Amino acid sequence: MAQCQKAPLSPGYRKVQNIDYVGAGDPRQRLDLYLPETDSEKPRPLLVYVHGGGWSEGSKDEADVLLGLIKDGTPYAGASLNYRLTDQAQWPAQIHDCKAAIRWLRAHAREYNLDPDRIAAFGISAGGHLVSMLGVTGGVKELEGELGRHLGQSSRVTCVLDFCGPSDFLTFGGKGSIIDPDEPGGVLAKLLGAPLKDCKEKARKASPVSYITPDDAPFLIIHGDKDNVVPYSQATELDAALDSAKIPSILLTGTGGGHVFLSGPLVERMYAFNARHLLGKDVQIPEGAVPSK
């Protein structure tokens, strides 16, 4: 699954690096903060980025798309986090880490002038899966874990930007993907601890569609209709399930887009989604096709 490249710091921002959000000294449980250098009387809305890499590689340093969303005088702060990869721990360690990071950020919001009630979760590919889980499992105790010193804090997020993330491992297989979910050494087997055919209940419990309830966060779902890694059907299935639960959901389809793409119109709609849900602006976000180049 795709990774992003390391990007330079956005002008007007300072970076606070390698914050240990669990307190155990594990480099895979650290996050970076990107904070505007200008003072603000009001706490800043926060965009939290979760990287991709098939749950088996990647880093918080690969945050170029995040930095593109918080630059040019936008009022946002940003965070990019590491989580334990599959060579270290199997599911649900990854979502336990992400939730611990959100709890840490909320507990330290006043220290960094962050608004604990305005937190967007944005992820690409495997990161899209993890932010989707954040968006739909705010009240699911078994997925909270027991990491860190801030277990009394909520791990809920305000809204979710899911960029080509898996949503249902039970329907992931078949045509349209180069990933074989039943391959013993494949990325899904490494995540779940066994090929999908041998751990279907665990796969169901690792799927965002299994947890959708009417109080979940609004979603922006971005997916290319030619994605040969995570099938486009994963996006339409998630969108339909959210619609059925009457959760605000916007599906942006990259026409001819493969696995991860960017275009000016797409970025503008991502800006608009954040402005609506983090800034309270009455902006329209056209649903449907978006150029992939």
Automatic annotation (TrEMBL):
<dbReference type="InterPro" id="IPR050300">
    <property type="entry name" value="GDXG_lipolytic_enzyme"/>
</dbReference>
<protein>
    <submittedName>
        <fullName>Alpha/beta hydrolase fold domain-containing protein</fullName>
    </submittedName>
</protein>
<dbReference type="InterPro" id="IPR049492">
    <property type="entry name" value="BD-FAE-like_dom"/>
</dbReference>
<keyword id="KW-0378">Hydrolase</keyword>
<dbReference type="InterPro" id="IPR029058">
    <property type="entry name" value="AB_hydrolase_fold"/>
</dbReference>
<dbReference type="Pfam" id="PF20434">
    <property type="entry name" value="BD-FAE"/>
</dbReference>
<feature type="domain" description="BD-FAE-like">
    <location>
        <begin position="31"/>
        <end position="242"/>
    </location>
</feature>
<dbReference type="GO" id="GO:0016787">
    <property type="term" value="F:hydrolase activity"/>
</dbReference>
